[in-house]
């Protein structure tokens, strides 16, 4: 065995040279890995071996370029030099794939003459998720194997394609049994030699492109069909253009040149920087300084959910989906029946649902009218009405019923969990699991640590969140926690702006153009203006009161802040406009013209400022955790990183100056956070903040 460098070894098995990479955690293409590949292939080509297998150790094949190296000076051989050497090798090169061959990893595999994979392997070009495109020939080689339509879909969605589907598409040449990748790849290599198989160079395979030549409508239609999904993002368009170049360029190399240009445009732009930041932010959020990764988790074999409404039902689905049985408890039989029927309908409606799959999942759900049914659950989550007295009553009963060591969780969206925990004899077992609606769909989970929550309860919750496919962020107890507390700032300013003369559709348009999926007023119309509104108590004291009294309760009644047509298309409403203007006049003021800049600054800067308060109070571990909450739970456009990243890009000094200016004009809603003042005084950024 020859050691090529610290991450690469070369061995010979009969006539086959085996080049093995081992660069944890994911064999990313760092300078060291590129050097190992370059020197390793050079040695393998020079050796007497008749074929070469490239294989990786650890959890995965190469998962892409090393994202941490982006933006720095490049060292060692370039990826292109490595690829040229592989593709030009005078003997068959076989990539042996397990785990995930992603991005640059798949681009390396596509330069090999053949690819074999185990059934659990997945391949894909997910660069779009970090605001990029496959910049090492992926946009040129992929359509030459899978065709233009499929390639467009893959590069703009970043989807991971399972081995079997990849084999059907021609991306993988042979599937070998699980656990026998090395033997399987070597056998394939020997066969290639024995049968004198050609050295397939994907770059030369132009046949798959022919059908797209002279058909620009393929691209136009694809753009049109996905316009909504791609809105605001730069990367999907550049990905499309790169695939277009594969079809239209006179040669492979010309297409490659175009890909390079489009890649660099993204790489040096602000969106990819934000999306790369966000990639690491999400992973960073999993790290809890005082709860090490090896903290033993409590086994969760059975879950209880209290409440079979939209929230409870959605929460239950998460666990059933991964095969954990759930007991769901309601007070009344009809509510329980309705809840279970809704869950069934959700499964039946989901695109991938097969009837037997629905039945399998439903069989894991047990309904009950008695909380005693929670006695053998390892975790119970309550999703009952958001009132402290009700929550306390529930937790007193759970304390009496649940077995020792069971985790007692509340799905409250902002109540004081220390107070809830105080009614139990086991506050160490109490935690907040704040799901977002619809709970079976939304990725975010705020895990709320109360004063006495045990570390293993936190570790268990974080682990479980990952298992059910959520992005978890650990936050502390404060009104509204991180997400809703920051949202309250934006909501308040949105309401105030309207009382000064901006119309709801002005506020919504500015926030929509910033990149949110919808503005606060459109959101209210969608949710229903009458949430929390009580007809008997309503005295026309707010715009909402008046709208609800007129039965303008949002989309469901055909009118709210906006008027809606039969297809639920929103139109600015003269009725709402008059109500607003009447309110302003009644308050003794004159409506004024509010600029778009003011709308944006008044809505966003107080959010950033509130984030700073959350940090100084220790309710979030790091500023990037706040960004993860807002990107995943509240539609903050990921290409702007999140509110705190956005604040850092603007410059904390600019945020502070604006807050002071607004405070001078409008009072203490704009009081700057002490941390903001301190960061500016120290010349630091939010990202520099470390929780004490
Ligand atoms: C690219 O290839 C560009 C080319 O087209 C052109 C070049 C010219 N780099 O996610 P996990 C770290 S762009 C550096 O928790 P999992 C990650 O930060 C790239 N580090 O594990 C974490 O570190 P830590 C295209 C990376 O099992 C650790 O590995 N490729 C990279 O849940 C474990 O990660 C992609 O976009 C990287 N590329 O998921 C794939 N990837 O432990 C990105 C991971 O210190 N990666 N790390 O927190 C993934 O999607 C997932 O990591 C993967 C594993 C599915 C591979």
Report what the structure shows.
The protein has 692 residues and is of the alpha/beta class. The protein has 28 helices and 20 strands. It has an 8-stranded mixed β-sheet with strand order 13-12-11-14-15-16-17-18, sandwiched between helices. Helix 2 (79-87) links the parallel strand 4 and strand 5 (93-97). Helix 4 crosses helix 5 (148-157) and helix 5 (148-157) packs antiparallel against helix 10. The protein starts with a strand and ends in a 10-residue tail after the last helix. Bound molecules: (S)-3-Hydroxyhexanoyl-CoA. (S)-3-Hydroxyhexanoyl-CoA is lined by residues 25-26, 28, 60, 63-68, 79, 100, 102-104, 107, 126-127, 130, 132, 134-136, 138, 280, 283.
């Amino acid at each position: 065995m020859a050691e090529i460098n610290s991450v690469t070894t070369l061995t010979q098995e009969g006539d086959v040279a085996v080049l093995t990479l081992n660069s944890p955690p994911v064999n990313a293409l760092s300078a060291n890995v590129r050097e190992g590949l370059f020197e390793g292939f050079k040695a393998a080509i020079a050796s007497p071996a008749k074929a070469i297998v490239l294989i990786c150790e650890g959890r995965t094949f190469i998962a892409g370029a090393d994202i941490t190296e982006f933006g720095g000076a490049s060292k060692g051989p370039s990826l292109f030099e490595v690829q040229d050497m592989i593709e030009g090798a005078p003997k068959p090169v076989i990539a042996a794939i397990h785990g995930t061959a992603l991005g640059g990893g798949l681009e390396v595999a596509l330069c090999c003459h053949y690819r074999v994979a185990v059934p659990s392997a997945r391949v894909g070009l997910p660069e779009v998720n970090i605001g990029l495109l496959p910049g090492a020939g992926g946009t040129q080689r992929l359509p030459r194997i899978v065709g233009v339509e499929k390639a467009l879909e893959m590069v703009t969605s970043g989807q991971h394609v399972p081995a079997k589907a990849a084999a059907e598409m021609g991306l993988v040449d042979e599937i070998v049994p699980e656990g026998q990748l090395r033997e399987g790849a070597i056998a394939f290599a020997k066969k290639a030699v024995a049968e004198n198989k050609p050295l397939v160079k994907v770059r030369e395979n132009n046949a798959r492109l022919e059908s797209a030549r002279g058909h620009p409508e393929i691209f136009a239609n694809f753009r049109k069909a996905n316009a909504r999904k791609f809105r605001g993002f730069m990367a999907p368009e550049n990905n499309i253009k790169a695939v277009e170049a594969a079809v239209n360029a006179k040669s492979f190399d010309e297409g490659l040149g175009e890909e390079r240009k489009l890649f660099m445009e993204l790489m040096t732009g602000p969106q990819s920087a934000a999306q790369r930041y966000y990639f690491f932010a999400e992973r960073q959020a999993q790290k809890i300084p005082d709860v090490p990764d090896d903290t033993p988790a409590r086994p969760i074999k059975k879950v209880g959910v209290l409440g079979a409404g939209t929230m409870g039902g959605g929460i239950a689905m998460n666990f059933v989906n991964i095969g954990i049985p759930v007991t769901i408890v309601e007070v009344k039989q009809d509510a329980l029946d309705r809840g279970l029927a809704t869950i069934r309908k959700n499964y039946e409606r989901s695109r991938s649902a097969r009837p037997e799959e629905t039945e399998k999942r439903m069989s894991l759900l047990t309904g009950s009218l008695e909380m005693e049914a929670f006695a053998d659950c390892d975790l119970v989550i309550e999703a009952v009405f958001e009132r402290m007295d009700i929550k306390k009553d529930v937790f007193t009963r759970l304390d009496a019923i649940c077995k020792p060591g069971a985790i007692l969780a509340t799905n409250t969206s902002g109540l004081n969990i220390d107070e809830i925990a105080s009614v139990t004899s086991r506050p160490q077992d109490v935690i907040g699991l704040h799901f977002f609606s619809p709970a079976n769909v939304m990725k975010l989970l705020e895990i709320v640590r109360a004063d006495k929550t045990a570390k293993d309860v936190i570790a268990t919750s974080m682990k479980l969140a990952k298992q059910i496919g959520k992005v978890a962020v650990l936050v502390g107890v404060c009104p509204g926690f991180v997400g809703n507390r920051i949202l309250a700032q934006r909501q308040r300013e949105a309401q105030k702006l309207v009382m000064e003369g901006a119309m709801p559709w002005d506020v919504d348009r500015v926030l929509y153009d910033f990149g949110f999926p919808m503005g606060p007023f459109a959101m209210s119309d969608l949710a229903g203006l009458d949430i929390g509104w009580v007809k008997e108590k309503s005295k026309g004291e707010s715009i909402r009161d008046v709208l609800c009294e007129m039965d303008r309760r949002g989309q469901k009644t055909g009118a709210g802040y906006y008027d809606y047509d039969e297809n639920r298309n929103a139109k600015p409403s003269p009725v709402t406009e008059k109500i607003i203007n009447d309110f302003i006049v009644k308050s003794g003021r004159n409506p004024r013209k509010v600029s778009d800049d003011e709308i944006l600054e008044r809505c966003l800067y107080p959010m950033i400022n509130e984030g700073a308060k959350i940090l100084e109070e220790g309710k979030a571990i790091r500023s990037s955790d706040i960004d993860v909450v807002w990107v995943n739970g509240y539609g903050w456009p990921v290409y702007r990183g999140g509110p705190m990243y956005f604040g850092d890009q603007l410059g904390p000094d600019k945020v502070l100056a604006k807050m002071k200016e607004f405070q001078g004009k409008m009072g203490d809603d704009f009081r700057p956070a002490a941390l903001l003042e301190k960061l500016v005084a120290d010349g630091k950024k939010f990202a520099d903040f470390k929780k004490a």
